[in-house]
Amino acid sequence: MDLTVTTDMELVRAIMTEPDIWERAAEDGVEMETWYPGYDSMTAWLLCIENESIVGVILMHTDTSVSIKMHPYLRKEHRSKGRDMMRSFYEWFLKNTDSNKINVTIPINQRKVVNFSLKVGFKKEGICRQSHMKGGELHDIQHLGITRSEIEGYLDAHKDKQAA
Length: 164
Hints:
The chain has helices at 9-16, 19-25, 82-96, 111-119, 148-157, 159-163; strands at 2-6, 43-50, 53-64, 67-74, 101-107, 123-134, 137-147. By secondary structure, it is of the alpha+beta class. The longest helix has 15 residues, at 82-96.
């Protein structure tokens, strides 16, 4: 899978507002009709491309001077490519950043996403209580992270799967 930075926010908006992605990404109170993706010097959007088809996007932004926060979004028909997308992102991260860590925040009501993150090497780091509104209910947010050395170890342990 190839990753490429895009500045085409109309394309990003079109992908992010696809119903299946929007349902998972948008918090209550955010209107699809008026939402527009953020883009500045601290933010990057990566297109995930396989066989000339966009399978998803990754939002990446500076979290601290040594860490980034990322939010991956796969199109529904490409959900089986999640591990491939993460391996590609890890390789991209190691090659293109000096950051030491990737952080993610996931509402705990999205258990499959939390479990997937654990399977691709992230570690639980804490809970931010009642910080996400979805379906009229407050949900806790799970904080997870993976360090540069943990990414290197993950990629090394999964080399055989990459070659297949």
